[in-house]
Write a structure and sequence with these properties.
There is one protein chain. By secondary structure, the chain is of the alpha+beta class. It has 2 domains: about 90 residues, no CATH class; about 50 residues, SH3 type barrels (Roll). Helices cover about 40% and strands about 25% of the residues. The protein contains 3 helices and 7 strands; from the N terminus they run αββααβββββ. The longest helix is centred in the middle third of the chain and has 36 residues. The protein is rod-shaped, with a radius of gyration of 33 Å. It starts with a helix and ends with a strand. The relative contact order is 0.09.
Amino acid sequence: MGIPKVSGWIGCLLLGLMAFHGPAQEPSNEASPAVTSVDSAPVVAADSEGRVVQRTSKRELSILSQEFWLEFFSSPISLLLLFMVAFYLLIVLPGQRSSKKAQREQEQMLANLKKNDRVVTSFGVHGVISNISSDSGTVTIRVDENTNAKLTVNRDTIRVVKKD
């Protein structure tokens, strides 16, 4: 996984966590602000001059608490983040694995080419390998047995080795 993909997923995770905590609240000039946040509890305290002031303090939410999960799943951005992770794990990741497996099999098949193998190229030409040039990466294919017509193609254009 490259740096851009990792940073993209980290950004999505941070966005989901920021959405979980709700929008930033602007500070108010009032002596006793109203309690508007779900995770705030009013606290009554005395200031330095002896006046009673009601303030809010943030409660610490544990990831194991029920309140944490209720608030997390109530946020639409958190749900979007969960759907993105599920999509990646269920659709994208298996597709990447299968394409890497197919690529490895193709490379192994090209490495095992030998003379007199029946092959099909990517542009649909059927033939028999008559010469393999490993230094230039080309293969000579005999396409007609009667006239002994031959084609020289790149090794990478061979897609299938037929088994007799």
